[in-house]
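One such shown below:
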Amino acid sequence: MDKQKLQQMYYEMVLIRRVEERGAELYQAGKIGGFMHLYIGQEAVSTGLIAAREPRDRVITAYRDHGVAINCGISADEVMAELLGKVTGTSKGKGGSMHMASVEKNMWGGHAIVGGHLPIASGLALGDQYAGNDNVTICMFGDGATNIGYFHEALNVSVAWNLRVLWVCENNQYGMGTAVERASAVDEIRQKAEGYGMKNARVDGMDVLAVYQAAQEALDYVRRESKPFLLEAVTYRFRGHSMGDPERYRSQEEVKKWQDNDPIGIFRAALLKKKNITAAELDELERRAEEETQKAVEFAEASPEPGMEELFKDVYAEEGLVGD
């Protein structure tokens, strides 16, 4: 991987962290409403995964979607404006925290219903199959979704119909407040693919370079063989399930142990070992991310809220959006 790509990946990870931190501040100040689920601690998964995709590959995810949106190329301005419910947001202020989306960027939405987007991913892949291309649909979801019927239905049909789907489980150890081992028959989520005869792998989701390599191999397999693949990324969210989570189900010692394994710190150390990237260069990337985040906050706060004339817009598909 060349230096420029490594720097871009580092920049995106830091930018996601800063956007999430400022978003939390704005939420606590009452400027963001509804539910909000932060991606802090999990940045390596989305960054490594999306860095490995082709731009034509579709990405669809659950409600912890701000970081995924940024990795897909949606600007910090649009993400922050969407969080604040402004018309300049990526979903025109109508989606909010859980529904970032951009068809132009091939980011097919964050989805609020646990596991509800997995059948949609199968449908996207089926559409590409009918179109005769070799695009891959990347579907991201949490460990909690793997205990729900949608997961099994979607995986089953993806194998039965030879759909090009890369299923990516972000195993952050908890489905809301329930630990994986209390809710799942197997601790390694990847094993759930074996009942469908699906190839699978497990990767350290705190190491962005490991995720990138595993994602590359999985994407190559899916594209070449026209078969689905389940990749489990073992990660951890540093904040609660959502902003209102008191986190009584885990100890501070546990959180501290994972924070000592911060994915940004791991990546920074790995980059400095390469010798061709300096601490000063990484510091400058961090400064730029901080600056971009501040500009995004200012942009969002200055942007207008949707007017009454927007109430019935975007209810029906525009002409030409759906193919004949």
Summary: The chain has a mean pLDDT of 96. Residues 191 and 200 are 8 Å apart (CA to CA). The longest strand covers residues 165-171. The beta strands are 58-61, 107-110, 137-142, 165-171, 174-175, 178-179, 199-204, 229-234.
